[in-house]
Amino acid sequence: MKKSVYKSAMSRVKTSEDFQEATYQKLRSEMEKTTQTNRINQKELLKMEKAKKRTLTGWTVGIAACAILSVGIFAMNQNTLNTTPEPSAVVTKPLVGKVAVNIDGAISEVSADGKSFKVGDLWVEVTDKTELGSKEPTASEPSEELLQKEFKVGNIVSGYTSQDASTGKVTADVIYNNMAPQKDNATNPPIVGKAAVNIEGEITEVSADGKSFKVGGLWVNVTSETELGIEGPTAAKPSEELLQKEFKVGNIVSGFTTEDVSTGKVNATRIYNNMAPQK
Amino acid sequence: MYNSYELNESVRRALDLYSQSMIKIAFAYLKNIADAEEVTQEVFLTYLQKRPIFENSEHEKAWLIRTTINKSKNMLKTGWFKSRNPVPEDLSYLPKEENEVLQAVLALDKKYRIPIHLYYYEGYSIQEIAGIMQSKSATVGTWLARGRLILKEKIGGLEDEEICL
């Protein structure tokens, strides 16, 4: 093979006519892409650097803050541990306020002008500033009975004052009530009642007439007024077993009396049962 | 380092000067002009991306040839290249003698084909070929001798030629 033949043959091999131009265009487009990518990369790089800086700054500030806090806490703890608490030089002022004193009781004396009265050892003056009756929102209007206009000896008053009661004379802040005392027993008699005492137990002794019997240490007399059996709408009629007509020694009786048992002998008010003992 | 203007000029100049040589060496490797042109474009793209700095134009040409050979090898290794069944390049437009010689060289194994191409087409010495192919000069000489021997059997001649060391 001669050199010239191969070289000539290879030189004649056809290639694309626009190869150079096409390649150049392709390279240029690639270069633009690369440039854009580089710009983006640079931007990203800048962003990343900024973010890094921010992160670093954040960490620095955070660590500094932590350090300051730690030092502060340490210093405070040192002070707390090393110093003994000194007695406070500041004298706490006593709480100042008005103390209300109740006015409650019977009027024992009234002044000549009728605007002052004495309750216990305290003279109470009623002025224009004294409120009469309760001002509470749910309070009802005071009736004339409960809050009379005139203060009289024996009237029951209630209210309070915020003044010093130790002086012996105060002005009433509020008077809730000023009422006449309850009338005597003649007009309102006391409730009178009888005390009932149970009669219950075994008959130990029976009188000769059979109308009296002894239960415990008490003689019980059965009269015509003594009621027999249980009374009431739902009560059953007493059977002969439970309420025998004859009182015998050993029988179990129950009932009550309203008479004084201290005498040792009473009339039975009612006899419920009079039954023979269980065999 | 080039700026974009210098790079453009550099690439354009390299395209003008070396693109044909690069296409031909890639053709000698791949036996297909379209593939050879594709490989050459890739080489220029690499040139653009890596922006190598050369001592002189010969250095630049050697780098381009070396890169073309490497990229051609890579293309041969790709699956799609192996799996395809390309139509042989139509070289019927060449004179008969030239066609026969070219077909005979392309039929050689690639380890003989490339040194012969670089020797006979590019005019490189064995030492230069050894530098480009990163092989020993003796090895290159052996490849050339064996390639010539095969070609002699096929097309005759070459007895009167000597290998220039």
TrEMBL record, chain A:
Residue ranges constituting the DUF5666 domain according to the UniProt record: 200-253
One Pfam family hit: DUF5666
Keywords for this protein: Membrane, Transmembrane, Transmembrane helix
Domain of life: Bacteria
The UniProt record lists the keyword Transmembrane helix: yes
Membrane-spanning ranges: 56-76
InterPro entries: DUF5666
Entry protein name: DUF5666 domain-containing protein
Species name: Paenibacillus algorifonticola
Automatic annotation (TrEMBL), chain B:
RNA polymerase sigma factor 70 region 4 type domain boundaries: 99-149
InterPro entries linked: RNA_pol_sigma-70-like, RNA_pol_sigma-70_dom, RNA_pol_sigma70_r2, RNA_pol_sigma70_r4_t2, RNA_pol_sigma_r2, RNA_pol_sigma_r3/r4-like, WH-like_DNA-bd_sf
RNA polymerase sigma-70 region domain boundaries: 18-78
Keyword Transcription regulation: yes
Listed GO biological process terms: DNA-templated transcription initiation
Record bears the keyword ATP-binding: no
Annotated GO MF terms: DNA binding; sigma factor activity
Domain of life: Bacteria
Keywords per UniProt: Sigma factor, Transcription, Transcription regulation
Transmembrane parts of this sequence: none
Family statement: Belongs to the sigma-70 factor family. ECF subfamily.
Name the UniProt record assigns to this protein: RNA polymerase sigma-70 factor, ECF subfamily
Native source organism of the sequence: Paenibacillus algorifonticola
Lineage, top ranks: Bacteria, Bacillati, Bacillota, Bacilli, Bacillales
